[in-house]
Amino acid sequence: MLFFGRVISQEKQVRLTSINFEIETIGNNAKVKAIHSILNESNNDCNVSISMTLDDESAVTGYSIKTVNGEFESELKEKEQAKIEQSDATTNGYSSSIMEQVDDTTFSILLGLVNKHSEVTFSIEYLTHMEIQEEELIIKIPNLIESKEKYQIPYSIKIIGSSKFSFKGILSGEEEINVPLNGDLIFGMKDEDTDEVVISSTFINKEKEGDINIIFICDRSGSMYGEGINALRNMLQLFLRQLPLKSKFEIISFGSKYDFMFKEMVEYNEDTLKNASNRISEFEANYGGTSMDAPLKALIDNNTEKCHIILLTDGYVDNKINTIEYIHNLSKKNSLHGVGLGRSCDIELIRNIGRIGNGISVISKNVNLLKKEVSKITERILIPTINKCQIEWNIKGEIIPKEINNFYGMITCYIQCKEEIKEGQKIESEIKGICREKEIIYKNTKNIKITKGVILHQLMAFNQIRKLEVENKKEEAKKLSMKYHILCKETAFIAIDKTTKKEVEFIKNIKLNEMCHKQSSLRPTMFFDSCCENDALEEDMSEDEEVFENESSKCELLCCNCGYHPSVEYEYSNGTEDMSDSVNSPVTTNITKQIAQPMINLKSYGECSNLCGEEKKEFSCDSVNKEIVFEKIIKCQKADGEFVGVQEIIKEITTIQSNNIDNEVIQTFFVIQLLKEKFPENKVEWKLIVKKSENWLASKPAISEEIKNRIISLTKLIKL
After folding, report:
1. What is each CA distance from 35 to 4, 92, 123, 158, 306, in whole angstroms?
2. What Rg, from alpha-carbon coordinates, does the chain have?
3. Cα–Cα dist 437/217, whole Å
4. N or C: which terminus of the chain carries fewer CB neighbours within 10 A?
5. Strands 426-435, 410-417: parallel, antiparallel or unpaired by DSSP?
6. What region, left, alpha or beta, does residue 195 occupy, with left being phi > 0 and alpha being psi -120 to 50 degrees?
7. In sequence order, what are the residues at sequence separation of 6 or more whose Cβ sits closer than 8 angstroms to the Cβ of residue 52?
8. SS3 per-residue string spanning 589-630
9. Which H or E element spans position 572?
10. Model-level pTM?
11. Predicted pLDDT of residue 111
């Protein structure tokens, strides 16, 4: 994943004008320099901040700032020392910049003063892994949301190293770029200062997609009332229809109490889908507290194994120590994934569920994006898990990670060599495990070429730091951070510009958001983007303006002077402004395509009668949220992938009939085309749904080209 920062300033005229990525690849490892051009068009000198959210696979290694006075590189310091130096610099009138890790996902960068009518360049450097699919690197670029954005933000990518590629575009939504993967998946590097040699080896799970065992543990405590429980219901309805036939599943609800939907894992088929779907539609937030440990203990007592366990909560759980202990226990035979919902979830716990449980962690701070985030997990875990993995090398050294209980996607392992490695020496690495009762062995072999550098050393150290932070071993994590120049919770980067000096009183008068921070450090629980006259705020949210995390972007409705919405609820932070949601969540805005033909206005919709069991409702297209239509369509899919009852939602489908083709075949083909045509912003959610439907259609008599064209034309005419 590529990441970039979001500009935070009290002046609306301060904006990001371009972002350029310079990437050096070593197999699927990448050293990234993200160069931000920031322009201050206002009539005031002002402080500017950058907020940035990274995933678990990325390590920050430094940043620099370039102004008319020159370029200033940052230095890594212990966090307290960095803060002291920054305070001293400010007291003496110097512009200073500091970057620190706010929490498990968020990095805060105070750039300092940007002069009026001037431009600065801010560059952040980090290491990350690229995903690999079918011999290609997948470069993901998240969306930078700017509500009512007046400026298009161009970006460029230049890749050198084992892969080479150049690309230019405009930031307009989540994008994926495929780049040919050149070279092997095993590399060696030597640190010229210490002579340390580290070799990395990346393994890719090549098992085919198929049925899985999956358990969803969902929070139904009182805090889920309202939007939370509604988002949970809709997400589970979608989740059920993403599962392959013959999978086994269970849904557990918890709060102060817990219960299993079924007495044991059940096979996924039409009967169990209908049963689960009807019961989910009745879910309420009426389980009291948030005791996640109890259902986890029940799974341990049931000797649960070979399962993917997804845990969702919107708050801080009771008995956290027990919860972590049970996650450790279950991770020996299962993969656990954490989903945080809303703005009050325990981010540290969610991250630890994925780290300890050998799984995935996501935080969806906008409830409307829950389906999207869980769909990403579902897609990745459909590849069968390889369990009880062992790593072996034909050389001696310290292997990191030492244990891999579950391997379901792609993993990079490292060895810090304890013997001299000669140029051209044959290096072999092997991962061995069990998948579906059979032994799986993947082996990487290469006559090694040792290059100069520390990228692999830093990635290896980052893996260790992450583990130490989970274990609360702060001093050990700090030592590794300082040794390998990697940002962690106990360190910070600082840069000081001593070429210019401002009057101290002047600096005090233009502190960022001073009016909002007189008594304490506050942060809003929600941001929107708007401009207002005489500080009056206009709330004009369209359905395109989504507020979200992952990874984390925010729309902002800010007070023009101080940057804060006076009517929005604020919560106390730990003294550092938390902009954790400002960037890097994949999202796609809702853009209705303009079509030359006259549009059909749908007059009525109803609930799909075959699954939901809810009272049918009539409503006008003009008054209904497009997302509701999407949810109703999804509920019409059966377990095998076919769609039925769609005419209850979009009656125009009844205009297409054929004596030679079953109605279910026509409806299924229609829904596939409709989703692609009218719901491109929901692709992450319907991707697995469509794949299942296409597989079902492949087993049926082919539709004539004439009928296909009529259906495709109809989908273009429908107005949503």
Report:
1. 8, 29, 4, 12, 44
2. 27
3. 26
4. C
5. unpaired
6. left
7. 3, 4, 5, 6, 106, 107, 108, 109, 124, 582, 583, 584
8. CCCCCCCCCCCEECCCCCCCCCCCCCCCCCCCHHHCCHHHHH
9. strand 570-572
10. 0.69
11. 81
Residue with the bigger pLDDT between 360 and 173: it is 360
Give the integer Cα–Cα distance in Å for 100 and 216. 35
Confidence of residue 590 (pLDDT cuts 50, 70, 90): very low
The rounded Cα 222 to chain-centroid distance in angstroms is: 26
Residues, the chain:
720
More confident residue, 407 or 548: 407
Q: Which among 317, 315, 280 has a CA at the least distance from the CA of 295?
A: 317
Residue 319 to residues 69, 288, 471, Cα–Cα distance (Å): 54, 15, 17
Give 136-175 as a 3 state SS string.
Answer: EEEEEECCCCCCCCCCCCEEEEEEEECCCEEEEEECCCCE
CA distance 233 to 254: 14
Give the lowest-confidence range in 86-100, 342-356, 475-489, 583-597: 583-597
Distance CA 61, CA 169 (A): 26
Burial class (CB in 10 A: 0-12, 13-18, 19+), 266: middle
CA distance 586 to 145: 10
pLDDT > 90 in the chain, percent: 39
Q: Decide if pLDDT at 507 tops 90.
A: no
Are 337 and 406 a contacting pair, CB within 8 Å?
no
Q: At which residue do the structure tokens 């999202």 appear?
A: 587
The 8-class DSSP code of residue 333 comes to T
pLDDT tens digits for range 164-193:
888 888 877 677 788 887 767 899 999 988
pLDDT of res. 494: 92
Token output for 182: 């050149």
- Of 464, 500, 344, the residue nearest 59 (C-alpha): 464
How would you classify the pairing of strands 404-407 and 386-393? Answer: antiparallel
SS3 content of the chain, % helix, strand, coil (to 5): 25, 30, 40
Determine the Cα–Cα distance for residues 409 and 615; give it in Å rounded to an integer: 42
Name the amino acid, one letter, at 64.
S
Say which residue the tokens 């009928």 belong to.
Answer: 707
pLDDT at 203 over 80: yes
C-alpha closest to that of 375 among 136, 692, 103: 692
In this prediction, residues 199-217 reach a mean pLDDT of 89
Q: pLDDT tens digits, residue range 632-684? A: 999 999 999 999 999 999 888 888 887 788 889 999 999 999 999 999 888 88
- Omega before 680 within 30 of 0, i.e. cis: no
Stated as kind and residue range, the H or E segment containing 439 is strand 438-447
The Cα–Cα gap between 556 and 82 comes to 30
Distance CA 203, CA 409 (A): 9
Residue-wise burial string across 342-359, b where 16 or more C-beta atoms lie within 10 A, e elsewhere: bbebbbbbbbbbbbbbbb
Q: Would you state the structure tokens that stand for residue 634, as one six-digit string?
A: 């999804």
Query: 476: which 2 tokens?
Result: 């050990």
Q: Indicate if the pLDDT at residue 27 is higher than 90.
A: no
CB atoms closer than 10 angstroms to residue 549: 30
Backbone φ and ψ for 559, nearest 5 degrees, come out as -65, 135
Distance of CA 476 to the CA centre of its chain: 28
DSSP 526-557: -------STT-------TT-------------
CA-nearest of 558, 694, 681, 583 to 630 is: 681
The total of other beta-carbon atoms located within 10 Å of residue 34's CB is: 21
How far is it, in rounded angstroms, from Cα 391 to Cα 405? 11
Residue type, position 502, single letter: K
